[in-house]
Amino acid sequence: MSYSLLHVIHLLAAIFFIGTLFVEVAVLSRVRQQIEPELMQRVDKAVGARLRVVLHWVVLFVYGAGIGLAWYHRQALADPFASSFATLLSLKILLAIGVFFTFGMVAMLLRSGRMTPTRYRRVHWAIFAQMVGIVLLAKGMFYLHW
């Protein structure tokens, strides 16, 4: 697959992923305060079920394309401190791995019944912050690289 196609797939999937989290942390958090709890619980359940289906595909595309792009830059990744591009790409990959494991933690907490609303909110804000960091690192990679 061409680098350009992988890049477009990766960018679109990242937009969908970050956009979903933005709606979750910035929009739905305020809606929850305005809607009666029983109704919001039904909305959360329906939205959550749909997001699990959609986000599985989005994650597959963002990480799959990201791995393909990393392969194109494997030489830079072999020495992460040789250039600003390699350093920022390495940091971006570390944050992406962190996001992946944090979502795994969310799944484990949900399955075990140990997820509280406060923990859910904090974890989602943490993931959102990591993803904003990834976007800023990505921009810096190409801004400093050229």
TrEMBL record:
Would you tell me the protein name for this molecule? Answer: Integral membrane protein
Q: Which residues cross the membrane?
A: 6-28, 49-73, 93-111, 123-144
The UniProt keywords, alphabetically, are: Membrane, Transmembrane, Transmembrane helix
InterPro entries per UniProt: DUF474
